[in-house]
């Protein structure tokens, strides 16, 4: 069973870093204010305000900064500033040996699926949740509160409206997943994680419909769907199409592959690239109940 990092307490120090796309100190000002209102002390890593093309500094700088925050026992959680792309470029440069002796929360989503999966592969929980760059986005209050609750070890459970494509049932298993394109990118690498007996959650943004289908083909052929305990399908934001339409929506594509198996499936879950992006604890054992009246997701006792 994956280990759970210590919950945060008022007065704890947290770090914000960029493992992917660059961000300025000014863009993080609202997030710093919010984190301080939670009673936390905030440290900005050297990758914040650094720039190398679209990245928050070159690979060496981003890796060095993340490594420093991992190894510093005074830092109790690491929040990745934003997604984009870049974390897979540096993951093999990171030494997790000190972290494994002194685990701490690492939180983010999108490209940070890399860290969520890698940490789970090492046997540690992490948080898939909203990132500092968009802490103050309109409509994101519930997502932000869910992240706070996850970091501080408070009870979390979610109730979601029914969806026409839902497949009813109940499942228990550790949560695993995140961004679909990153899950495919990590397949076959040292950051790849097993999905067998687990509840997989998926989300993505601005992918072509044929590409979503291609990635589902890959996951299915790789055996990632066959032995799932359950499937949670989040936002697939702003999908793209070709001049000749693909003919199916993202959810309909997923349903074609999920429909081959018997596990429960919940569509329309508020996770992904929209303000309603509820925090999920990767590696935490959860209970998924999909019924006619809606979906319940809570962490198993």
From TrEMBL:
The active site is at 110 (nucleophile), 203 (charge relay system), 273 (charge relay system). Residues 14-129 form the LD-carboxypeptidase N-terminal domain. Residues 172-288 form the LD-carboxypeptidase C-terminal domain. Keywords: Carboxypeptidase, Hydrolase, Protease, Serine protease. InterPro entries: Carboxypeptidase_A_C_sf (IPR027461), Class_I_gatase-like (IPR029062), LdcA_N (IPR027478), Peptidase_S66_N (IPR040449), Peptidase_S66C (IPR040921), S66_fam (IPR003507). GO terms for molecular function: carboxypeptidase activity; serine-type peptidase activity. Gene3D superfamilies: Class I glutamine amidotransferase-like, LD-carboxypeptidase A C-terminal domain-like. The keyword Hydrolase applies. Pfam families: Peptidase_S66, Peptidase_S66C. GO terms for biological process: proteolysis. Belongs to the peptidase S66 family. This is LD-carboxypeptidase. It comes from Hymenobacter gummosus.
């Amino acid at each position: 069973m994956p280990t759970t990092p210590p919950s945060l307490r008022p007065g704890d120090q947290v770090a914000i870093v960029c493992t992917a796309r660059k961000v300025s100190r000014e863009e993080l000002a609202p997030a710093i204010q919010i984190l301080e209102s939670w009673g936390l002390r905030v440290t900005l890593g050297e990758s914040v305000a650094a720039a190398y093309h679209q990245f928050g500094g070159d690979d060496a700088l981003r890796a060095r900064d993340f490594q420093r925050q991992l190894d510093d026992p005074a830092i109790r959680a690491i929040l990745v500033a934003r997604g984009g792309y870049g974390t897979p470029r540096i993951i093999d440069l990171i030494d997790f040996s000190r972290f494994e002796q002194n685990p701490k929360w690492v939180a983010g989503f999108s490209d940070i699926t890399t860290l969520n999966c890698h940490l789970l592969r090492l046997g540690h929980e992490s948080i898939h949740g909203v990132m500092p760059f968009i802490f103050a986005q309109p409509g994101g209050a519930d997502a932000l509160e869910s992240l706070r609750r996850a970091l501080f070890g408070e009870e979390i459970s979610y109730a979601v409206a029914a969806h026409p494509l839902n497949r009813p049932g109940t499942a228990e298993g550790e949560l695993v997943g995140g961004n679909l394109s990153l899950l495919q990118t990590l397949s076959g690498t040292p950051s790849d994680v097993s999905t067998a007996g687990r509840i997989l959650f998926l989300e993505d943004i601005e992918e072509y419909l044929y590409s979503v289908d291609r990635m589902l083909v890959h996951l299915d052929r790789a055996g990632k769907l066959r032995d799932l305990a359950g499937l949670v399908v989040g936002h697939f934001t702003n999908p793209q199409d070709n001049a000749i339409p693909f003919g199916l929506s993202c959810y309909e594509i997923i349903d074609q592959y999920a429909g081959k198996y018997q596990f429960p499936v919940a569509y329309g879950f508020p996770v992904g690239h929209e303000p309603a992006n509820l925090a999920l604890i990767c590696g935490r054992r959860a209970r998924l109940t999909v019924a006619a009246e809606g979906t319940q997701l809570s962490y198993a006792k």
